[in-house]
Amino acid sequence: MISSFSRVVVAAVAALVLVGCSDSGASDTEPAAAAGPEPVLSANVTDGQTDVPVETIVTVDVEDGELGEVVVRGGEDDAVIEGTVDGARWTAAERLEPAVDYTLQATASGTDGQQTELETGFTSQSLTLDEQTYPSVAPLQGETVGVGMPVIVNFDLPVEDRATFEQHMAVTSEPQVEGAWNWISDRVVHWRPKEYWPAGTKVHVDLQLNSLPAGQGIYGQQNQVVDFEVGSSVVSTVDVNAHTLTVDIDGQTARTIPVSSGAPQWASREGTKIVMEKFDTIDMDAATTGVDSSDPNYYNMKGVKWAMRLTNSGEFIHAAPWSAGSHGRANVSHGCVGMGTEDAGWLYQNSKRGDVVNFVGSTRALEPQNGWTDWNVDWETWQSGSALAGA
């Protein structure tokens, strides 16, 4: 039989046990957070892939994470392809070079700090020189040119997909002017402003054509970036009937020079011409203008001074002391504009590539593309020569 004292002790012990059970249900630490999904990296090129098209723009994407560093490099100098990140995607800033082994390394981190890495090696397609078209640009880097100078791009292989190329060809300037590209042929494209360049304009040409498909299995061979400046405005007018050449510099008449232009059977062509080349001396052979050496009018003159080319067909402005008696009086040349040596030297020193020379009073028209004839085309017609016209 249990005494009353024993019952009290048992009850007390039971109470302590209940309290002890209640305390054991609490914890001094929070439960561990559930692990987040592991970030997943992917690229649009795969490890070991070969013959990757050179026009490929490499991209790297991440799911369930944040992109870290992305490095794509390759070539003899192990050059790095730069890129930009937009949200969960890294995009290369340029296309691939042909026949190059590339490595791609990328990292990403998950929401819980987990790190993921991606490493890929791939090889771009090979191209021969016959599959690459090289863009040559005029003006040259750093050149100072006249107000009539067009931007000229010559390709050594034809460009069939002109629209795609033109979308990657930009001309900007300070001050900005309105202008447009015009495809002279599948190998030649010019950009000119609507009006002559303002004197002092700074121009930036940016052609992002490297590895860009030109059509027919041909790709752009190289990007080109050229900066040039427009100098003073030098606009001359040759009046073939008055036998004068008047030079306006920055809107003011600087000199009127007596000249002799082309005789009637070789009349200097009417129209707006651009100074294409300058030679302090040059040999002039009539054969280059189509006059055979057996012709009585054939000539081959050595050391002609202060010559500036205006047409592909051989019209120049130059010193012509041998015809001094005709300067200002008669047209006796084979199409060139001749003048006294002192006047020719002054004009040469005050001229630059891209200066404008207008010919008036002639009955012989200037043929399209006989030189840089861009300014003989009205603006609406010029714009229609863009591959993007109407797009």
Which terms summarize this structure?
391 residues, 4 helices, 10% helix, elongated
Q: Mind sketching the topology for me?
A:
Layout (H helix, E strand, L loop, with lengths): L3 H20 L16 E4 L5 E4 L6 E5 L2 E9 L4 E3 L1 E4 L2 E4 L8 E9 L5 E10 L7 E2 L1 E4 L5 E2 L5 E5 L6 H6 L1 E6 L4 E5 L4 E6 L8 E6 L5 E3 L2 E3 L3 E7 L3 E6 L4 E6 L2 E7 L12 E4 L2 E9 L14 E10 L6 E4 L17 E3 L1 H9 L6 E5 L18 H6 L7
Parallel strand pairs: 2-9, 10-19, 12-20, 21-29, 27-28
Antiparallel strand pairs: 1-3, 3-7, 4-5, 4-8, 6-7, 8-9, 11-13, 13-16, 14-17, 15-16, 17-20, 18-19, 21-22, 22-23, 24-29, 25-26, 26-27
Question: How do you describe this structure in short?
Answer:
By secondary structure, this protein is mainly beta. It contains four helices and 29 strands. Helix content is 10%, strand content 40%.
